[in-house]
Design brief:
There is one protein chain. The chain has 488 residues and is an alpha/beta fold. Helix content is 40%, strand content 14%. It has 16 helices and 16 strands. The protein has an 8-stranded mixed β-sheet, sandwiched between helices. A 4-stranded antiparallel β-sheet has the order 12-13-16-15, with helices on one face. Helix 10 (274-287) links the parallel strand 8 and strand 9 (290-294). Helix 8 packs parallel to helix 9. The longest helix has 27 residues, at 375-401. The two termini are 52 Å apart. The mean pLDDT is 89.
């Protein structure tokens, strides 16, 4: 083979680099015809489109010229020679650019463990948490509203728009929150953000200086903990029990911020009672702190009436309320929202403006239509019924298949529960996960949500993405894996 690929980066880039080097080295003389895309694709054992992309890149940079009906030829005059070709991946001995303190923290926290964009094959019976049932969503209705908004989009809608969010959506969210979550606010208090994670990051940037203390739940959502640490906060874990964060444990703790999930503690699922909510608000007032209330799946409650949110109880402007569409609609929509106390609005809106100049507005306006025309709450009611049935199937299957060897917590709300496996050692969870995977079952240990390894073996079982039959089958297969583990 007269061309060889270097193995670095996309195949079309490898093909382009090999051809460019052959031209520069004189292997392909000025005016020479390049091989047909089909011939070169067969020789390199790549797709024909890969070669076509490489040829397009050569033409764009002046190394080749196309001739209609004749093919592609090496240019008679080449562009200025580029610097010596370098690998698209840095060599180990190359000096890395100096990082900021923020960058150093990020490298220390994550290293090479960032897996965004790489999804492993999903088991057939995957009890993943955090995703709704996509088949439950009224796709046809959403697409119809989206098409209507796209057809009517004016120049004003296609230009840069308000960083705080589309006015229609902020109005719609204010009405929805008052009806369903007891959060009484006006549209001016609502800041639309690009997912809950941006809300957390903005909160850390606006409220915390490096070294300031921030209280988080233990166990808790790592996205909160890591965002605070990235911004230089001193992260203080606070114990969680069956009723959420133990406020008595932080009574003498001074902090600038406390991050809580009171409607369905993540991951253990405790629901914070009224007395503890009031105690947390008293603590915030006494130590001059702000409370970030992450209501990530508070719309789903199955036993009893939902309690008022912390924001609904707040009379002194201490609570930032965060809600999201990810658990009700679909995560890739990337629309969440912050409800802000009046005194904090200017700083948060300014931080949002500097961060991204505005989340995509077409989808925001479609969501506003979806809410205003009643589709959102209609879908939410149906989703509650469907998820209640899935939850019941999961609880029944755990009882039938595993029985007294499992303790279930956090099942009254949300889209997941935690199963403590009494006859499994924490160190055996990896083996259990592998045994379950062989049976096409996906389970997810609670261990990553603790800063200190728990003394019991627990798994998070999400049920929203499976139907009842799949839930029963999956738990049956998990029970088989447990029996095999005990026999080892």
């Amino acid at each position: 083979m007269w061309l060889s690929l270097d193995g670095n980066g996309a195949l079309y880039r490898q093909t382009y680099r090999a051809l460019r080097q052959a031209i520069l080295d004189g292997q392909l003389a000025a005016g020479a015809q390049l091989p047909s895309s089909r011939t070169l694709a067969e020789e390199l054992q790549v797709a024909r489109n890969t070669v076509l992309q490489a040829y397009e890149q050569l033409v764009a940079e002046g190394y080749a010229v196309p001739r209609r009906g004749a093919g592609t030829f090496v240019a008679s005059e080449l562009p200025d020679a580029p610097p010596p070709a370098q690998s698209e991946r840095p060599n180990d001995d190359q000096a890395a650019p100096r990082l900021s303190v923020f960058g150093e923290r990020g490298a220390a926290l994550f290293g090479n463990r960032l897996g965004w964009g790489r999804r492993r094959p999903t088991p057939r019976y995957d009890f993943r948490y955090g995703e709704p049932a996509f088949d439950d969503f009224p796709h046809a209705t959403w697409c119809r509203l989206l098409a209507r908004r796209a057809r009517r989009a004016s120049e004003r809608h296609l230009s840069y728009s308000e960083p705080g969010g589309a006015p229609e959506l902020r109005e719609a969210l204010a009405g929805y929150l008052a009806r369903t979550r007891g959060v009484v606010c006006d549209a001016a208090s609502v800041l639309v953000v690009y997912g809950t994670q941006q809300a957390i990051d903005l909160t850390a940037r606006v409220l915390l200086d490096p070294g300031d203390r921030a209280i988080v739940e233990e166990p808790g959502y790592p996205g909160i903990r890591n965002a605070l640490a990235m911004n230089g906060a001193e992260v203080v874990p606070a114990r969680v029990d069956a009723e959420g964060i133990v406020v008595d444990d932080i009574a003498d703790t001074s902090a600038r911020l406390a991050c809580v999930t009171p409607s369905h503690q993540f991951p253990l699922g405790g629901v914070m009672p009224l007395g503890r909510r009031l105690a947390l608000l008293d603590w915030a007032e006494r130590v001059d702190a702000v409370v970030l209330e992450d209501d990530y799946d508070g719309e789903f409650r199955y036993d009893g009436r939902p309690l008022e949110s912390l924001r609904a109880l707040d009379r002194r402007g201490r609570v930032l309320y965060v809600g999201t569409t990810s658990k009700v609609m679909f995560p890739s929509l990337r629309i969440a929202y912050l409800v802000l106390p009046e005194a904090l609005r200017p700083a948060f809106f300014a931080a949002k403006a500097f961060a991204d100049t505005g989340t995509a507005h077409l989808e925001q306006r479609v969501l506003a239509d979806f809410i205003d025309q009643g589709f959102f709450e209609r879908h939410l009611r149906r989703a509650r019924v469907r998820n209640a049935a899935r939850r019941a199937a999961l609880l029944e299957a755990l009882t039938d298949e595993i029985g007294s060897d499992v303790e279930v917590v956090g099942e009254n709300s949300g889209l997941h529960l935690v199963a403590w496996l009494d006859r499994v050692k924490p160190g055996d969870l990896r083996t259990l996960r592998e045994l379950a995977a062989r049976r096409d079952v996906g389970i997810h240990p609670v261990t990553p949500f603790y800063t200190q390894r728990p003394t019991r073996a627990g798994i998070i079982l999400g049920y929203a993405a499976l139907d009842e039959a799949a839930i029963r089958e999956g738990i049956g297969r998990l029970a088989e894996a447990l029996r095999e583990l005990r026999a080892l």
